[in-house]
Amino acid sequence: MQSQRHTFEHLIxxxxxxxxxxxxxxxxxxxxxxxTSKLSDLFSWQDFDEIINEGAYWTGTNLTLVANGxxxxxxxxxxxxxxxxxxxxxxxxxxxxxxxxxxxxxxxxDFCQSQTExxxxxxxxxxxxxxxxxxxxxxxSWESKKGFVSxxxxxxxxIFQTEGRKVWNIYKNRYEEPLTGTDHESAxxxxxxxxxxxxxxxxxxxxxxxxxxxxxxxxxxxxxxxDATLHxxxxxxHCNGRDFLKMIFAHLAQVPLLRQPLPSLDDTExxxxxxxxxxxxxxxxxxxxxAREFFSNYQKLSSTQDGFPSFNFxxxxxxxxxxxxxxxxVVPDDVPENILAWIKSRDFFSADELENILLSGEMRSQVLxxxxxxxxxxxxx
Length: 381
What we know:
This protein has 13 helices and 15 strands. It is of the alpha+beta class. It is globular, with a radius of gyration of 24 Å.
């Protein structure tokens, strides 16, 4: 990653960071009209062709075709036996794929957050700002052919339109705190969606350079209004309370009390006492500083997974990245103004990038130490 191409401030301009967090995040949709130059270097049809032509990478698990809310069977566009493809079963079959695409389904590429350098840079920006893992899905659609019916997403989503035009129907209603894998997911409510979504709230037509933010649970659907359209869908995968309890659960086998059999139900007093001891043990574990620190570190690690590269071979050292904490009001006095301005114009940076503007390794170490001490930056775990 050579540099940060798009800061969050640039992406949501002219709204501004403070206003976005105060008025929109987790509250209501936001449509930002851009111009063709805003995202022109981010992702194009040429980029799409280059990554989809990596035929051995794509399978029925990370490339999906969707028409009218239904995913096509992977066998319809993939090799379905060892003899069908030199790469083995479930790999893309080019002839099958082209045959399916003549029917104009939406084509979805999953888990693309580090497929190209610009995409990885944008992933790192969003990970730095929102302190969570981000997941990128690239979606190609064709005019008047609906891929997805009205639904809501289980995470906050940023849409970046890079090619063509698409009309989005965003409805007034939101589903409160949806959660995948439970009764609170969109698929479980599909037969009631027309009753739940409400009237149309807004209907923007996204063109190249436009940005759309949708909080989780916001009902929506979209339809291409040009011959072909391409957009990036970034999902913010925030941890939740269930994730914390899953980590606690994974540790329970290490607690001797929880490995013991329960007393006989015939011995009511002993049975109740044992259950009380289990409750106390769980409360102690959940409230322990160690559990909270472990989970906090997990959150930090999960927010620097795909956007940030780690290796710079032949060097044996990992690349060190820093997140800029724009929310802090503390400004260290012993950092040169030009360095401070450079830092505050970014959402993240690498230690190596500082070498280009600082004269010596010793000065770089002093500046990093001062910035970390003031809480203005935070190192990647």
